[in-house]
Amino acid sequence: MNDSRSIRFHYLLRAVILLAFALYIGHLVQQDALHYYVAPKLARWVQLCPIPLTLMALSLAIQALFGKGSVLCDCEHRLPHSIFKSTALYGLFLFPLLLGFALPDRALGSMAASKKGISFSSLPSETNNAVRFESIDPYHEELTELAKILYAQPTIPVYSAIFSETLGAIDLYKQQFEGKEISVSGFLYRDDSEMPESAFAIGRFLVQCCTADATPFGMLVDSGKLKSLPTDTWIEVRGKLQVVQYKGQEMMQIRAEAITPIAQPTTPYIYTSADSITAWKALQITANPTK
Amino acid sequence: MERLIRTLTTLSPLKILPLLLPISFLIIVGFIWVPELLDNAYIDTFKIGFIGILLEALPFVLAGALLSSLLRVFIPDEMISRWIPRQALPAILFACLLGIIFPVCECGMIPLVRRLIHKGMPVYVAIVFILSGPILNPVVYGATLTAFRNHSELAYARMGLAFAVACIIGLIIYATVKKSPIRLSVQRETDNTHHNNSRGGKLAAVFVHTSDEFFEMGKYLIIGCLLTAGIQTFMVQDSLAAIGDKPLGSYFFMMGLAFVLSLCSTSDAFVASTFVHSFPAGALLAFMVFGPMLDFKNSLMLLSLFKTKFALYLFFLIFSSVFIGAVLMSIWL
């Protein structure tokens, strides 16, 4: 059993750590950096965390400063006894804070993509799409609907909000989309072992919940004679779609006509959209307000 | 320094186990990947993964700790035991349905269950709740259905298998475990009511207990996040996929992956769906049922709650019944 003075010390230290966690989350929200770590739907809950954290810190501080000695007791939750164990415990809690404050907030890049393995198609390959724009189940229906809309565009725009759905729709109807103009932006990813210098992939990270489940998602690019850019550069690629054989599978590839380096978007990751058709319509209205 | 060595030698091996794990991990990382660590991309990826998992788990851990201390301060002991049916079978079914009312992620589960056991919930009912709660709830069902929009039968299979596994393990524990498997140090917590006269009344007491729970569970959470982020940063997923070529190898691979990735049960379905091309449906099912029941961070938490022998017995039961269940289910998928 610890004496009351050491309990007060532990409580104060814990209050400081809890407050530091609350401040760190506040700092991330203020810097608009929370989306580097968690998806928007989860970020809402993370933003609420500073409230209980601060209340906990305040209660502990009140106990430590004004609590009566006889009331302070660690008989229920044992506090660490030796200096070594205390240091280890609080060191563990300070580590994420140190990491968080000391290093800049960055988005995942091609290093992580090479570990996770980039995926070029969102759908099982056994589906046969010989028939023009016909679908089998609700999700296919949605993508088919999207494919029809995309097909009518002179140049297919790939919006961040429906990135995975757009690539999915094109992937579903490879033959029909061959030769169409497309414009995509993402980071440049190179799988050094497999691809020649002129070929690379343009990718984005698809995040469902947090960065632990981030999966890289992208499209092959053949840059031809255009000058090559370093890996991880954010680029916009314009070009024509073509079907190629890659690792024994049919894939869509962009034969690039123009590659322009761009600034990293404010939200570097992409998220799934519940209804891509509605999202597309909303995007059209914001893109062309005159119509 | 002498003092430090003396403290180290007097500690029992089990007590320093949680400390040895991250230290040994850091040593391994230090020796093998020092040249790579100097490369900034690794540190960045590690940080993004680590902070990402930690922030993701934080709301759930806080909710679990808050709920547990609310239970402690406001709900009298008799109330919980009155709600739970006396017979084993209805009690197990009751525990399975509890997840629908408390959709708590597995990280928030342990502090809550610890409190429930103190309030008189039988251990086998608590185990069923720990196992079924993170899967059998509307949030996870919705997420699984969205992830497998082309294979909705997998979402039903996931719910069904989780239900079956939780019930079977509950029955086995009811039949085989008679002595209390709770760790002595946890048992010693006496329910005396000195918290009533602490400063700031009951509300302050709730928050003091919440922070106690938070520091108790937080250390396992942070160790789990460190290990998971380390694995995600340094492991190439494709290189391990070779194990998946053998017929049953894919099951072991997916279950091992679920264990080391320690994903949240609401998001693991999306990760599983990226393996749809390369693995049979049964292996994906094993991934989605095994992961929420047992992974790095919650096995550390379970070890802190239960005696080591019982915890290992429980791990074995979970592993074998999920494996057998998934293989059997794969016949219908």
UniProtKB/TrEMBL annotation, chain A:
Q: Identify the residues that the record assigns to the DUF1980 domain, covering every copy.
A: 13-118, 137-271
State the UniProt keywords alphabetically: Membrane, Transmembrane, Transmembrane helix
Task: Name the residues that span the membrane.
Answer: 12-30, 42-66, 87-104
Matching Pfam families: DUF1980, DUF1980_C
Task: Kindly give the InterPro entries that the UniProt entry links to this protein.
Answer: DUF1980 (IPR015402), DUF1980_C (IPR048447), DUF1980_N (IPR048493), UPF0703_membrane_permease (IPR052955)
NCBIfam families, per the entry = TIGR03943 family putative permease subunit
Name of the featured protein: TIGR03943 family protein
